[in-house]
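Morning F.,

Quick status update on the modeling queue. The single chain you submitted on Monday has been processed. Sequence for confirmation:
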Amino acid sequence: MSNREISPAFDDPKNITVGKARVIWAKAVPPLAHEGWVLPGGSRTANFAEAHACAVRMDALLAEMGA
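Structure tokens below.
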């Protein structure tokens, strides 16, 4: 199955993919969340550098786990 078949709702050109890690861009869900990249734990950021750094760290962790 491709990512499009698994999660078409999360197919946004702003998604960040680094190796096997992906940090998705999500639209706002008022009043709970503003638009931005969704970080582990559900917090969001509009800062690209922060989101990209998170994807890099996630990919490194996946590599350490042998995933």
